[in-house]
Known about the structure:
This protein is of the alpha/beta class. Helix content is about 25%, strand content about 25%.
Amino acid sequence: MASLGVALIGTGFMGKCHAMAWSHVRPVFGDVPDIRLETLCDVDPELTLKRSREFGFARPETDWRKLIEDERIDVVSITAPNNVHREMAVAFLEAGKHVWCEKPMALTLAEAEAMAEAAKKAKGRTLLGYNYIKNPAVLHARHLITSGVIGDVVHFRGQVDEDYLASPDVPWSKRARIDLWGLGTLGDITCHLVSFAHLLIGDIARVSADMETVVKQRPVPGTNEMREVENEDIAHAIVRFKIGISGTLLSSRAAWGRKSLIRFEVHGTKGMLTFDQERLNELQLYVNEGPEATRGFLLNHLITELLPGTETQGAMANVDPVTGQAAWYDLRVRLTKAAEQESGVTEPLLSPLTPMLAKPPKLLRTGEWFRQRRRAGEQP
């Protein structure tokens, strides 16, 4: 395919994210088909025209149905409100187009199942917007788990928090309506956490959950009216995975100070690993081997350089230069004393590091490494 014609539906926050992503495919990935930004679609004519110029699309459109038979369009990004995902996705799939749909997939399970069935029959490819699991640190966590580095998995803990609706002064909007938006924190951000759990552990079999709306009414913009918030701000669940292990999932869109926090711990019979997206370049690994005094968490930063042949190899090249997502340029490596002394952790974790530990490159030299060399009278 010499080129790929793109239509984008939605001009809001996620619409802008998709526009930025499409415009940077070639700079990030290199040898790929040309991306033609054909049509930007939304309901407001003036705003759509303005955004089409800002985002670099060839033309604005206010009727999404006109895109269905447009032969210039090969793939459609859907960032419209959740209540129209099913209708749009099914129509474009039946027309033979590829579909990239934002999460949550749909308002109800029945709608999601209808979309999945349409995807099975379609010749076009489909993708949902679970971008966070593409972080090289998360993919490397999966590699460590499947390689048995932490032994058999016994427990999963996950947390996802934001503060965009923490303030009661945030105006009422379509996000508060079940008929338009559906779920609250569950649909907005918890589905990302579930995608992590599925990637790292597998399918969830049973759930025991609770949820709560913290701010029950919000001010309607331009009026003195207060209107009800119809969906949840907080949701917690105890889960049982199909493989038999337990887990917990915690979520809030009203957690002050949190900016896209997604945190998980995976506990195993030989160790554990933990990840916090607010420090998205760091993956902490603990292996219960070697002398007790030198055990500790190893911070994995140079995954692509030190572990060739894994799923994360080459990931440094696949960094969005605008947003810095998965930005492996920030390589603040702090090896534990156990790793520096080549003790406390055994194969396969340290084998790629072994040749570097005698005189590691400057990027890997920690304060302890320098202190040891000074005490020995050596020049660092």
